[in-house]
Amino acid sequence: MTNAPRGLTTTLSRRSIVAGVALAPVLARAGITLAADKVIITVVTDTAGLGDQNFNDLADRGGKRAAKELGVTYNVIESQTQADYVRNLTQASEDSQLVIGVGFLLTDAINEVAAEYADVHYLLIDSVADESLKNVTSVTFKENQSSFLTGIIAGLFTKTNKVGFVGGQRIPPVIRYEVGFKAGVACVNPKAEVKIGYADTFDDPGTGKELTLSQYNQGADIVQAAAGRTGIGAFDAAKEKKSGYWVVAADVDQSQLGAEYQLCVAQKGVDTAVFRVAQQQVDGTFEGGVQDLGLKEGGVDLTNVTSAVPADIVQTAADYKAAIIAGKVGVPVDDDSFKAFKPVPPDEVKGMATPAASTPAS
Amino acid sequence: MPRISSMVIVNIVNILGSIAAIIVALLAGAVLISIAGQQPVEAYRALLDGSINGKRAIAETLVYSCPLILGGLSFAVALRAGMFNIGIEGQLMIGGLAAGLVGALHLGLPLYIHLPLALLAAMAAGGIWGAIPGAMKAFSGAHEVISTIMLNYLAYRLTAYVVQKTGKWLPVQPSLQATKKVVPEARLPRILDGTRLHAGIIVAIIAAFVLWYLLFRTTFGYKVRTVGLSRGAAAYGGINWGLTITLAMLASGILAGLAGAGETLGLQGRQYTAPQGYGFTAIAVGLVGRNNPIGIIFAGILFGALNSGAPSMQADAGVSKEITQVLQGFVILAVAGFAVLNNSSLARKVLTSGQSRRRDRAAAIGTEPDVEVRAGPPAL
Within 13 A of A153's CA, how many CA atoms are on the CB side? Predict the structure, then answer.
């Protein structure tokens, strides 16, 4: 079940002399030779863990790419409960130069551990660590922007004027997904109703399926899932309902779960962020600080739109994307800014971003 | 002194049974690890390395043991009264929530007042959450397995609600899906430098001895055990069945609440909305510890070691986290199997090889009731 990188999973700890004997054949198979000065990077997952087909697997993909292209030694430690974060980050810090905490809920733990291991570098995904910690890079994404675009697609494509959103826990990155989606739908289809459901966990496909099914049964024909492993259940629900029901995937292309049900993807470049910081670590250019990546920076995007969606809908989404990048349309980030948000109808956006259309309007 | 000797024999048989079960489970785990394509010897070496090799490893084992010991005690006291408490997880969460809310208030009180206040809040909240299904069974016969499971969901949802919706009145942080950070005056102090080990483990061990005394040296304990053995006999002896099971569930909830408080005040510094699952592992701890408070200390440490060694197994031996969960499952299965064996033949043979068959069996029932029989799947 788990797709742990078996061949690559090793450490150069003080135990490596013992471990080396047993691991030698494994390493040989993976084509890796042990070198004393090799950079070690370790990913600590959140409780959804590897195999979530989503957020953690995406970070894992970035780590594997770093192992392949940069020749670093790459480890993963999966967390089972909230209590594991500090322990796992500590364990990782003992022998790694770069430790990657995957997820908002690791914020407290990164703050605690990074303060203790000043000479280890950290990458925190989805949240911002204490600014006083110079050894931490915090990367957040503007999920609301990509989700706004999936909202455009969903709002125009829905046959029932009802769409749904299933979240994991209602933490800021997921809230950004939710309000972005709602804002996108509101722009193109003011009549459409958006049903919202939260599983309160990122770790439970069963609940994800039930939530999605209940939204389908209430008339929604498109449901966006932003729920980690829980989101796998959305595809199970679509499969049960058969054709005519769609899932919008968050973070990463999930067509392996059912390509015929995936409407489009609100992509999030967790893998790119992991790879880039790993590269900085190797090059010696690591810098602490905060990066907030949106459509403009290529950190998030609308991808994998299914061919069932007509070209004019795709074009409308592209118009909004250009307008967002140009700063002409602001996408809400939380409940308050969503309340204040005024939907921008498609005809206002058309050609807004292109210089030719910049008519002397106001 | 035939009475004492048979008591000792029962205990020894129990202990040997548990140890044999653990060995069988580890062997079965080794087979599984081999099938998964890893080296079992290497995996177990990593497990030991991560759980007992060095100060930090031992501290981590005890950190994970803390909620498991308290949870195991919680399960044991209920089961001694014949109540199968599956609601430990919810009682633990409600206790942790109460501790987190009281602990996050800036009261300006010193540690020796604020910390006990937070602990008391957890005990009260957990106790009430535990006593409800006890009282429900006493008054209307509602089966505790159903009501405790349902109260778990209520506990999860109530915690989520409090955290998300009561920011105006209570110290919560919705953006983190948790209560606000507990103030230093309400934290269970760390007791070993450079580790996460906190005073919760001391609370757990004291609680184990208190519970042992309560169960085996007081009238209340006698009532609890009698009710658990036979409701009819207890009634004949003038014991109020309903009151006794309600009080036993109250005690169970108090212990679970303490387990939650230990996590919130000792480890996390906040109560999160995501269930941690200790309440269910605690059932296994109770069973492996044979519902004996002292046995539960050791069983809790065993399961704590399985938890604390897990990342070493992942990092050094490439064994996925699921394998450690399967290992725990094996331990539970094996213990349950050995318990049946004990009751049916082994223990009886040992006991009846003594002098008076009748006297020894009576003694055995008086001291170590065959709770394992009761621990099977509850009849619904």
Answer: 32
The whole-model pTM stands at 0.81
Summarize pLDDT for A36-85 with one digit per residue, the tens: 468 999 999 998 888 888 899 999 999 999 999 999 999 999 988 888 99
| Cα–chain center distance at A167 | 13
Token output for A334: 């939380």
- B191 close to B181: Cβ distance less than 8 angstroms: no
Domain that holds residue A262: 143-268+310-352
**How many angstroms away from the CA of A13 is the closest CA of chain B?**
9
How many Å apart are CA A27 and CA B279, to the nearest integer?
Answer: 40
ipTM confidence: 0.75
Q: Do A47 and B325 touch (CB under 8 A)?
A: no
Give the span between the Cα atoms of A135 and A101, in whole angstroms. 13
Beta bridge partners of A122: A99, A136
Q: Is domain B37-319 given the CATH code 1.10.3470 in the classification? A: yes
> CA B270 to CA A178: how far, in whole Å?
26
For residue A348, give how far its alpha carbon lies from the nearest alpha carbon of chain B (Å). Answer: 34
Distance CA A258, CA A243 (A): 11
**For residue A6, which residues of chain B lie inside 8 Å, CB to CB?**
37-38, 318
- Structure-block tokens of residue A262: 């995936």
Task: Identify the CATH number of the domain in which residue A94 sits.
Answer: 3.40.50.2300
Q: Collapsing DSSP states into helix, strand and coil, what is residue B123?
A: helix
- Closest alpha carbon to A71 in A270, A274, A282: A282
